[in-house]
Amino acid sequence: MPAQPANTIERVAAVSAWTIQAPRLLYPQADPSQAPLALGAGWLVVAEAFAPDDPLAEGAERLLHAMLHALQLHRHPRVGLCSVSAGAEPGAQAADAAMAEHVAAFAPAVVLVMGRSAMQAALGRREPLGKLRGETLALAGVPVVVTFDARFLLRNAASKSVAWADLCRARALAGRSSANAPVP
């Protein structure tokens, strides 16, 4: 068997150190007929799981929901959250393969990846998050927008406007990618 390039081995090691939970719906009670068309057929948000002992967890969770609310995602029944946590579960497949399966099954109009850990787990990328912001990325054929996570934004309020620009970009991509797709 031919030797793999070192960067391939590093990438595999990096993505297999994460566990990605299956998407859970955030707003299942939302009325599909009231979902703004500009939101597309659904969103998949990938973010690091909030640790209960993290002093910023409660505030970060409130900020995450406020950000999604500002986009009117609370009015959409197909907004899923995939929580990412460090450490692979025994026998789990590589995180990037699991993420591709989740995206294919959920079929969102856009994937919003929030934070460095989520970026590493979902995309298997090790570059600084700032370098991937604004990049044209896709996962299983679905547009991906990378932005800062809520915990980071609580500590770095000056970055909130940059994160808002990323969210607006995701909304624009969602509206474009599924302009004719009905909301289930």
Characterization of this structure:
- With 184 residues, the protein is α/β, with parallel strands linked by helices.
- It is 39% helix and 18% strand.
- The chain is built from seven helices and seven strands.
- The chain has helices spanning 6-15, 57-70, 95-106, 116-123, 129-132, 150-155, 160-177, and strands spanning 18-20, 24-25, 43-48, 79-86, 110-114, 137-139, 142-147.
- Strands 1, 2, 3, 4, 5, 6 and 7 form a seven-stranded mixed β-sheet that branches.
- Strand 6 and strand 7 (142-147) form a beta hairpin.
Feature tags:
184 residues, alpha/beta, seven-stranded mixed β-sheet, 7 helices, 7 strands, 18% strand, globular, disordered N terminus
Strand count, sense and closure of the main sheet?
7 strands, mixed
Give the overall pLDDT as a whole number.
84
**How many helices?**
7
Low-confidence stretches: 1-15, 179-184
Describe the global form: globular
Tally of extended strands? 7
Distance between the terminal alpha carbons, to the nearest Å? Answer: 47 Å
Q: Which class of secondary structure composition applies to the elements? A: alpha/beta
What proportion strand? Answer: 15-25%
Radius of gyration: 16 Å
Helix residue percentage: 25-40%
Q: What's the helix-strand series?
A: HEEEHEHEHHEEHH
Please provide a brief summary of the model.
The chain is α/β, with parallel strands linked by helices.
